[in-house]
Amino acid sequence: MPIIVQNVSYTYGKGSPFEKLALNNISFTIEDGDFIALIGHTGSGKSTLIQLLNGLIKPDSGSVIVNGHNLCDDKIDMKKIRSTVGIVFQYPEYQLFEETVYKDIAYGPSNLGKTPEEISKIIDDVLPLVGLESDILDKSPFELSGGQKRRVAIAGVLAMEPAVLILDEPTAGLDPAGRNDILSCITALHNKKNTTVILVSHSMEDVANTVDKILVISDANLLAFDSVANVFKDSVALKNIGLNVPQVTRVVNHLKQKGIDLGDDIYTVDSAVDAVVRYLEEGKKC
Question: Which of 19, 84, 123, 237 is the most exposed place for a label (fewest CB within 10 A)?
Fold first, then answer.
């Protein structure tokens, strides 16, 4: 189920003194099963883009096609689209409101007309994907830890069985352990269900350790849509738009300037360790 964005532009406050161009004639295609990061500085157009992909807003021009359906079509069934493209907004735990975890997760599929039996089956399937046990279902979501609340919120979106999952800063505000847990859950979901995942993040470390491709937005324009290696290779271009490469990549680049060349395409700690070992072994051989 590809997502095709063609020549899309969007302007806030059009015709008013507060008019602001949010997206400027951007085009790209996301294929089934892609694991993508969407990055850009604050105000670059990321939030506008994910709202367009879910049909929450419609472009001023261009088209957004999901599973063959143009979201600009006035007759389109938006309920179906929003169950196909699920969004987990930043700090989703603030949107928890039901008495129990079960009711909170069940809210979405219930609105889609699922029977109680179908909902129970969905919840049984969803819980392992987010690393939760069934004994949590009768608890109040407000009694849980921050990381658990985040998982419950993600489970609520997954319960609508979306083919595409968009996560807006899913690790924001979590401690390192919580961040790793959430990212592991997202990666496991992608691997098990082949779900198309779009991860919005300011953390280049999170991006480097999870996704396959990166989509870069800068000042309403599409700057790049390429592999992780190719995007991080041009650290100067990223720095010019207020972004950076992962810290380990900056260290490797600094070493290269000092005459210690560990190689290219190093953007995770594991790849850096391997490169250092190779460098030392080659030195011993010499």
Answer: 19
